[in-house]
Amino acid sequence: MHELAVTQSILDIAVDYASRAGASQVTHLYLVIGKLSSFVDDSVQFYWDMISQGTICEGGQLHFERLPARLACLDCGTDYTLDSELVPCPKCGSSRVKILSGEEFRLDSIEVLS
Amino acid sequence: MNSVRVPVVEKILNANDQIAGQNRLLLDRAGVFALNLMASPGAGKTSLILKTIEGLSPLFRLGVIEGDTAPVTIDADKVAAAGMPAVQINTGGECHLDAVMVGKALESLSLPDLDLLIIENVGNLICPAAFKLGAHANVLIASIPEGDDKPYKYPNIYRGIEALILNKIDLKPYIHFDQDYFLRGVEMLNPGLKFFPLSCTTGDGLPAWLAWVSEKVHNVKS
């Protein structure tokens, strides 16, 4: 449900950077989203089509790069990736783990016409 | 026309984070400790606020910001009835509070007259996790009837919190809740997290929570 607010932020950032680059149109947007970030791509796309209308981002294509959630076990040192839900270390069963990545939530770059 | 790649590398919610930083500055300057209270609907946010008012109003000057998705003032009315300054934020259907909404609410409170500000977020385990408000501590209330699997299903909200309350422990005899399983998930997401099992109905466990909040208020004051 917070995808509208998120989409608005993406639009604001893209318009800001594109204007500063003197661009006339934004054609592609490259987003990096970690697996642990709660975020529905389809929903963002839906809002994007609506709110980008009439801006220099209209028609710009969203690309979502989903990064996996990577964890490291603090007891045995095993690195592992979460497939779906949160699980303890698959090797030794320890819950003492560190989350290395998976919480990314950024706009990496845009492609513009100038 | 040339097609050019422009590097951005900006957090999507950066604008919100910055306003949250301004909110924090305002609170710090006024010496007010602020709590952002998050939970699913029905976990006991308002009950905990009322119990906290009851326990701490003899010691501190409290204020409350109530976030609701609709113009329903049930919660704000309860707080006002307890004699506390309460500001209602109607999010107009939005599922979370954001830093701009809280910033506006801060303007309508007399901060120098407060020691402790409790912000009741919208009942939701997904969206509030993404939006910083500028509070000093994010606190999550889980509750026995919600089930022991919530850290596994909603990992995000367990990540950015400073304390976790497990409410309704008086219902343990009636509901299957594997507390070890629950806490293992919490430990994976947020090692060493402050944990307060309590019941707003019986009062069990409340003193530890109140002591923690009191210490935090003193820290901001000093």
Count of the domains of chain B: 1
Strand order of the largest sheet of chain A: 2-1-6
Q: Biggest β-sheet of chain B, characterized?
A: 7 strands, parallel
Classified by CATH, the class of chain A is: Alpha Beta
Helix content of chain B: 25-40%
**Number of DSSP helices of chain A?**
2
Strand tally of chain A, please? Answer: 6
SSE pattern of chain B: EHEHEHEHEEHHEHEH
Uncertain regions spanning at least 5 consecutive residues of chain A: none
The termini of chain B sit apart by 60 Å
Short description:
The complex is a heterodimer of chains A (114) and B (222). Chain A is α+β, with helices and mostly antiparallel strands. Chain A is built from 2 helices and 6 strands; from the N terminus they run H-E-H-E-E-E-E-E.
Based on the model shown, name its key terms:
heterodimer, A: hypothetical protein PF0899 fold, 3-stranded mixed beta sheet, 2 helices, B: 222 residues, alpha/beta, Rossmann fold, 8 strands
